[in-house]
Amino acid sequence: MQELIGPFLENPSAVASLVSALIAASVALLVVMVNQVFARRQQRVQFLQPKLEELYLLLNEVAERNTRLFKLLAAVVEGDLEAKKHLDSLDDLEVYGHPIAKKMVMLVRLYFPKLSSIHQHLFAAERDLSQRVWSLSMGEQVGIDEVMSASGRVGHMLRLMEQEMVSNQKALLRAALFPKRYRPVSENDLMNVPAPPEGPPLSPRK
Question: Global pTM?
């Protein structure tokens, strides 16, 4: 051992050169590691961003469908025979929104599992509305208040899911250098469904 370090002890400049080389190598290695971390994070964001945007657009589609469906159901409840005929002519996949629902389930389960809770609340609200659709299609008596309540709950859950997606965007994309705290909507927000407005529900169906 003495034979190995002896020459360095006798030559301080050689020791200084060796230390400088070790520091430079360590810094270079650290830079490479940091660059890899940032590169992986960038790749992850580039991969997840389109998925989150697709999920957001699907929310908009569900919102539009909910509005159209409510207007149709309200007309059926009021005794509009043409509306009832139109409801009966719709394909089950269209009226119950199965294709969109499957896409949303796939995106949430595979890429954004943190959204599972609010998505389950939305799914439950849509299931309740679908039950009203089924009852009307079978000729059963359904009140306008039931339709307004079920449709309003779907709209409320859509707004909450959108809110959770926007407020937790960095956490969902895992874009932050350090993990960010995920903030789901509160139980109070879930329970406080706004009351439907007074007066006619919506303009005539088009």
Answer: 0.78
